[in-house]
Each structure stands twice: as structure tokens, then as C-alpha cells.
Design a protein that fits this description.
Layout (H helix, E strand, L loop, with lengths): L5 E2 H8 L3 H9 L6 E3 L2 E4 L1 H15 L4 H9 L8 H52 L1
Antiparallel strand pairs: 1-3, 2-3
Length: 132
């Protein structure tokens, strides 16, 4: 690696992504690798951006939301606007995730109840069959 540049293979290894993923993020203008012929070399900035992209995806942010947050890095206010907007977006996503968890907990409880009912019905049917 020269001058902090990282080839695509190393990026894939370090971040556990595929070359296709990196090319996709590049096509969406989220990453801006240096091009040397056919080679893509990723800068420290690209690595930092990829880390944020992957974290944002894990938290349920859309690529457009991630792009908007990343674009705020360069506005020159020491990332105050970026941090403020990221915090607001995170709060919204947290509320959504907590609601999804509550919905899943409710669905799981209902499914368990239905399974218990079915087991009881099967138990009765088996008991009746054995008695006959």
C-alpha cells in the first residue's frame, strides 16, 4: 500500500465485503477510489466512508440517507451539522427498530400460543385414538 491507498482485494478482506459491493457503492457515488488503469485504490477517506456505510446499513439506514449524511462532512462546520443530522436519523431509526422488536415479540408470543394449542389438540387426538 502506497500513500495509504488500499487495493480492492485488501478492502474486501478488511471489511468482509465483495468486490461487487465496492463497485456498487462506487457507482452510487458513496466511494471514490483512485483509478490506475483498471485498478481501484481506496483512500483512508474511502475506508472511513465504507465503515460508516456498513454501520448505517446495519442500523437500517437507506443508501440515500447514508449519502446525505456523508455529504455533510465537507460543509466546513467541524461536522456539527453531520453529527446533529446523524443523531436525529438514529433516533428515528431506533424508534422504528424498537417498534419492530415489539411487533416481533407479539408475533412470537401468538405463534407460541398457537403451537401450544395445536400440541394440546394433537395430544387429545392421540389419547382418543389410543382409547379406542
Amino acid at each position: 500500500m502506497t500513500d495509504g491507498l488500499m487495493p480492492i482485494r485488501k478492502m474486501c478482506e478488511v471489511f468482509d465485503v465483495t468486490p461487487r459491493t465496492l463497485r456498487f457503492y462506487e457507482s452510487k457515488e458513496l466511494l471514490f477510489p483512485v483509478r490506475e488503469g483498471q485498478k481501484r485504490l481506496f483512500t483512508r477517506r474511502d475506508r472511513a466512508r465504507l465503515k460508516l456505510i456498513l454501520r448505517g446499513k446495519r442500523f437500517g439506514f437507506s443508501l440515500e440517507e447514508i449519502r446525505q449524511l456523508l455529504d455533510l462532512y465537507d460543509i466546513g462546520d467541524r461536522q456539527e451539522t453531520q453529527l446533529r443530522r446523524a443523531h436525529e436519523a438514529a433516533r428515528t431509526h431506533l424508534i422504528d427498530l424498537e417498534q419492530q422488536r415489539a411487533d416481533l415479540d407479539e408475533a412470537i408470543a401468538e405463534l407460541k400460543a398457537q403451537m401450544a394449542w395445536a400440541e394440546a389438540q394433537l395430544s387429545r387426538t392421540c389419547s382418543n385414538d389410543a382409547a379406542e
